[in-house]
């Protein structure tokens, strides 16, 4: 079993804005053993003198798509599984190097990729996944163009026909239940459903509410029975309201939210994971990617409301997580999400979103997103004070001399001193 001791640390614990100075943090195996204001005595353990640098929980990105290998999602399946996997390897390695020690894949991530990460075959963060997204015919997970004919249910639960590497088509209560149960059979940690129109899907306008009440409630009930939860892709106020009222625990994006809907989300104790990075990236790169004119129009529709949506959520006191949703070559903009949020939120609010609140959303509070005894040793060291300059976390890991995931030393640019 491995041991480490961090000395002379300035600790941000994931919650408190006042950081304790001169702290020692001992790691045993994959867990934090002790956090003390006195030097921890641990014989023969390698020690790292942080000299006042900030030690904090590893970052959590709650909205990624590891297999989404192109900005144009209609091209992803044509690239083949080996290509999608190669993209995932590159993307996940980059995330880890930027300090993201945990990610949640909310569309496409699977048991095989999680196992490869767990067995150390590829480098990457701790990996939660929801399997394929549940989408209705013609919904945001149905990437068939309008001229394509075919029965989306003929090959249910496989990657052929209208089902694809990121989503599965299900209509009606029985098909929704079967789809959810199949994702859980494949090890999904949670379930995502498409509940409103989306930006990059070809046949659903943004304003279109997806699924009937009975279908959404069936998905939610199955998740609750599994001691898990459902989260829903929603842009519009009507889609958000319906989902929250029908028991959905989380909302992805929430871009077009209004004050009344935000107040409802807060009152219900639900949460939202905004994804500013993808909005910004598509606005910058959509034309170069030769996305169709109708998709470019939808990009602009959500772009003009994205920042005001954050302000509405903040005013209402909505619980917010940190997500990016980046696809294809724009995955490198992941850390830029910190800069996109600082126009609305304080550094402390953003840090909580990316640590302790993220852990709560994952149902891992006390184990992730914190610096406390018995939590997982997912830790990063910041060369500076992120509570004053959140941009330190937006430098693609350049300001992170130490990265640790599950007690494994991913990066150590400071070096050790004798125990």
Automatic annotation (TrEMBL):
Question: So which domain of life are we looking at?
Answer: Bacteria
Query: InterPro entries from the entry?
Result: Amidohydro-rel, Metal-dep_hydrolase_composite, Metal_Hydrolase, Metallo-dep_Hydrolase, OTAase-like
Give start-end of the signal peptide.
Answer: none
Listed GO MF terms: hydrolase activity, acting on carbon-nitrogen (but not peptide) bonds
Q: Name one Pfam family in it.
A: Amidohydro_1
Task: Name it.
Answer: Imidazolonepropionase
Taking every annotated instance into account, which residue ranges of this chain make up the domain Amidohydrolase-related?
A: 54-406
- Please give the Gene3D superfamilies that the UniProt record associates with this protein: Metal-dependent hydrolases (3.20.20.140), Urease, subunit C, domain 1 (2.30.40.10)
